[in-house]
Amino acid sequence: MNIRSICVFCGSRMGARPEYLEAARALGTELGRRGLSLVYGGAGVGLMGAVADAVLAEGGQVVGVLPHLLQSREIAHKNLTELHLVDSMHTRKAMMAERADAFIAMPGGVGTFEELFEITTWAQLGLHHKPIGLLNVADFYGPLLALMRRAVEEGFIPEARAQPFVHDASPSALLESLLKAEQPLTPATPVLGPEQS
């Protein structure tokens, strides 16, 4: 797969640890230096703004997608290559998914989790074949990886789909893994069998 653009899901806040901001800047710098475009939620605040600023500082391309209803709350970034103002969160996520060749989730809140789980579900259903990565700063996503394993053990996720993500604490190492990754979830069998429907 030829990856040229990466969608990053992350918080509109900075978080409690300085490592989160450092990771956002490092990820943006890596994206810019590698000539990879950033697709993200369009805000100029929090980790969202930090990763975008770092890509732009390296001369990279940044595509933001922001719903009108969040334009004042998240404060639209004013210096992006492209800023698309859309009517709904659904349109935002669909456009980001369409414009990206791969996905990375950084630390964030409920919105970040929702975006990550939706794009992972779409992969499981075969709606896209793009790799998904977790930037696991300070083991932020350790509990999620453990939850995925628990769901496998309890029979809710097939073993073959136990780890749909590549993950690393280092932005550069994560990008290396992501660029080499194949489609994370291959729906070789029906998602719902007769006993599950």
TrEMBL record:
Q: What GO terms fall under cellular component here?
A: cytosol
Q: Which domain of life is it from?
A: Bacteria
What is the top EC class of this enzyme, as a single word? hydrolase
Enzyme Commission code: 3.2.2.n1
Keyword Hydrolase belongs to the record: yes
Q: Which reaction is catalysed here? A: AMP + H2O = D-ribose 5-phosphate + adenine
Q: Which GO terms describe its molecular function?
A: AMP nucleosidase activity
Keywords, ordered alphabetically: Cytokinin biosynthesis, Hydrolase
* GO process annotations (BP): cytokinin biosynthetic process
Pfam families for the chain: Lysine_decarbox
Q: Which InterPro entries match?
A: LOG, LOG_fam
Family (UniProt): Belongs to the LOG family.
By its UniProt entry, which NCBIfam families does this protein fall under?
Rossman fold protein, TIGR00730 family
Name of the protein: Cytokinin riboside 5'-monophosphate phosphoribohydrolase
